[in-house]
Amino acid sequence: MGKPRSILFVQTAFIGDAILATAMIESWHAAHPKDHLHLVVRSGNKSLFQGHPFLSGLHVWEKSKNHFARYRNLVALGLELRGIGFDVLVTPHRHASSGILALLSGAQTCSGFSSHPMSWLFAHSEEHAWGNGEHEIERNHRLLTPWVESEVPRNPKLYPADNVGVSEAEGEFGIAAPASQWATKKWPLDRWIAWLDAEAIQSPNRRIVLIGGPADAEELREIARQSSHDRLEIRTDLSLLESAGWMKAARWVVTNDSGPMHMASAVNAPTVAIFCSTVPSFGFGPLSSLSVVVEKKEELVCRPCGMHGKSACPLGHFQCGTGIAVDQVLAAVARI
Question: Lower CB density within 10 Å: C or N end of the chain?
Answer without folding.
Answer: N
